[in-house]
């Protein structure tokens, strides 16, 4: 396939990977989905408005309709076929005695000066978020002209990547270390750009402390707060609107995160017991955090991937850091101030759209762009705009003196 020429400097053993669920497992899933009940009508689930943080969550009718579509019209095999049109790989990375089997999609360039770009997802996302971005790059460049090597991994614990280990704690810092080993092992030790949203934004910020990471771009910077009410009053009307959504998330929209962080064992077991339960939990977030409610098929692609790979209970380890006795918020931690070229894209319907004035406090912000539309799943919602942001940021950052550090 095109775009499959792995750099000769790569030291990792990389194997091609085919996304495929065994027929028996697929049949079992369909049976379980068919017999999974939906809870009774209540006042709350009849008036719920998923697009309002102050409402009660997912509407029962949405869940009923989604289950029916999932059973009668949705085709997982077509989704797998789409995955397999890309160059999927796995590679083994050993870390502190544990072997991680990391899945990633690679779009490799034949240009000698191609810039390595690492794109990292978060929860409840997956590598699927970047498929339209990869299509956009492929439509603009062939493998001989592509200015970038693009690596889209499944984070440890997500999708087709295994882990984390079950006999010890795992942190966001551990995940970042694995990703740096991936990029260096693919032959990019001389430098790469890290980009991330959601959990990927925390991971990318940590990667900014590694010598091999030369620049960082994020589209979420949650945890950074104004120093006073006066600072908010002096903001533009647009930024004050952003701050309201940010505050609404902090007071009404983060119950899920508290559950992930304080009761990961319980919620992990609960959502592994029923595909309908998982759909309600994840579907709420796709609808609430997107600028416009995404197509149901996109949500089902993600939820079905989570189900078949048991991603949910394996993927939420990082949330415990936010609700530890001493909470760790990476974007406001001076230890993770980004000294290297730093970029930020603000999408107004992000779960917490942090104003640029606050983001500037967290690193050497050399580039930013504020969009008029788009939400939390920026790469999926706005692939053309996302690609333009990557191209413009890399053009501004790659040859900066700080990127040589």
UniProtKB/TrEMBL annotation:
GO BP term, example: epoxide metabolic process
Sample GO molecular function, one term: epoxide hydrolase activity
Pfam families: EHN
Region forming the signal peptide: none
Cross-referenced SUPFAM superfamilies: alpha/beta-Hydrolases
The entry's keywords: Hydrolase
Residues annotated as catalytic: 198, 319, 376
Gene3D superfamilies assigned: alpha/beta hydrolase
Signal is among the record's keywords: no
Keyword Hydrolase among UniProt keywords: yes
Domain Epoxide hydrolase N-terminal: 15-130
Family that this chain belongs to: Belongs to the peptidase S33 family.
Protein name in the entry: Epoxide hydrolase N-terminal domain-containing protein
Source species of the chain: Extremus antarcticus
